[in-house]
Amino acid sequence: MIPAAFDYHKATSVAEAVGLLKEHGMDAKILAGGHSLIPAMKLRLNQPELLIDISGIADLKGIKDEGRKLVIGAACTHGAIASSAEVNKDAPILAITAKTIGDIQIRNKGTIGGSIAHADPAADWPAALIAADATIEVLGGGGSRTIAATDFFTGIYDTALEEDEVIIAIHVPKVSSTFTSAYAKFFQPASRFAIVGCAVVMEMKDNYCVSARVAFTGVSDMAFFDEKVSSALAGKSLNDETIAAAAAQAAQGVDTLGDHFASEEYREHLAKVYAERAIREAIA
Ligand SMILES: Cc1cc2nc3c(=O)[nH]c(=O)nc-3n(C[C@H](O)[C@H](O)[C@H](O)COP(=O)(O)OP(=O)(O)OC[C@H]3O[C@@H](n4cnc5c(N)ncnc54)[C@H](O)[C@@H]3O)c2cc1C
């Protein structure tokens, strides 16, 4: 399938990309890895008149250690994050999650910024970033700001980004060796997107859970922090009974998605099953 005609500009700086977005408004789109935008253009679901390619901007590509946090450039690929020694050590939930995305070609081209801007309800990054308590740094015509990952996703393919804003980086608090993380995912067998994905980050003292952050993707029209499961884990000694009780709270009060992959009832069931798997995997 062939997309509608468009102009192409390779930006050399973030300021240039923001300037072009401001000038062209809804007619322009940022191009990062192109693995979501180009298929949408081929299907003519998206028909931008101008593509602003940010893949050559070096500032958007690094992973920096800033003391208490890692700052991951928006144009870092899933593969670069999966294999980063810093991420594996200081924010392991991100490395664990990145390794489950698509296949090797997708991981080598797709970017974290592109994935979260696209905000597919079945994408993996949103759950990991919410569980990691990350914040998103953006720059637009009105200047720069940061948005908590918990507030960033606002609906199906919808985010808190303004039209002229570009995602610059993802700020992720580092965790110490007392933290443990896991991502349990029920894969869509062809694309490997998450029919249900559950990310867990817990601080443990032996088998006592000091704090927990549990987040889901795929279950609803957007990824969400599961307050009920997280609070059911925090302050408890984790054993079969307390883990099962916490997992049973999964996705309560959430408007569950139903589609040809999984009905609403099945997704509700999967949320509980995958919460329990993620918690157990994190402990193991
Ligand atoms: C076959 C296949 C399998 C896949 N499997 C998975 C999977 O298992 N899990 C998963 O999570 N994803 C999966 N994906 C999606 C993949 O991860 C995409 O790469 C990702 O969603 C988009 O990233 P991108 O860099 O390609 O963005 P692009 O396609 O270039 O852009 C996507 C959108 O984000 C905007 N954008 C890009 N970068 C920025 C930025 N810095 N600031 C503001 N807006 C920006 C663009 O304008 C566009 O609207 C799959 C895709 C394919 C084709």
Task: Provide an overview of this structure.
With 284 residues, this protein is an alpha+beta fold. The chain folds into three domains: 7-53, Uridine Diphospho-n-acetylenolpyruvylglucosamine Reductase, domain 2 (2-Layer Sandwich), CATH 3.30.43; 58-173, 2-Layer Sandwich (Uridine Diphospho-n-acetylenolpyruvylglucosamine Reductase, domain 3), CATH 3.30.465.10; 179-283, CO dehydrogenase flavoprotein, C-terminal domain (Enolase-like, domain 1, 2-Layer Sandwich), CATH 3.30.390. The protein is built from twelve helices and 15 strands. The strands form four sheets. Strands 4-5-10-6-7 form a five-stranded antiparallel sheet. β6 (135-140) and β7 (143-148) form a beta hairpin. α5 packs antiparallel against α8, α10 (227-233) runs antiparallel to α11 (240-247) and α11 runs antiparallel to α12. The longest helix is centred in the C-terminal third of the chain and has 20 residues, at 264-283. The model has no long low-confidence stretch (mean pLDDT 97). The structure holds flavin-adenine dinucleotide.
Offer a quick outline of the entry.
The protein is an alpha+beta fold and 284 residues long. It has helices spanning 14-24, 37-42, 78-83, 85-90, 92-98, 104-109, 112-118, 125-131, 149-152, 227-233, 240-247, 264-283; strands at 7-10, 28-31, 50-53, 63-65, 69-73, 135-140, 143-148, 153-155, 158-159, 166-173, 179-187, 194-205, 208-217, 224-225, 236-237. The strands form 4 sheets. Strands 4-5-10-6-7 form a 5-stranded antiparallel β-sheet. Strands 11, 12, 13, 14 and 15 form a 5-stranded antiparallel β-sheet that branches.
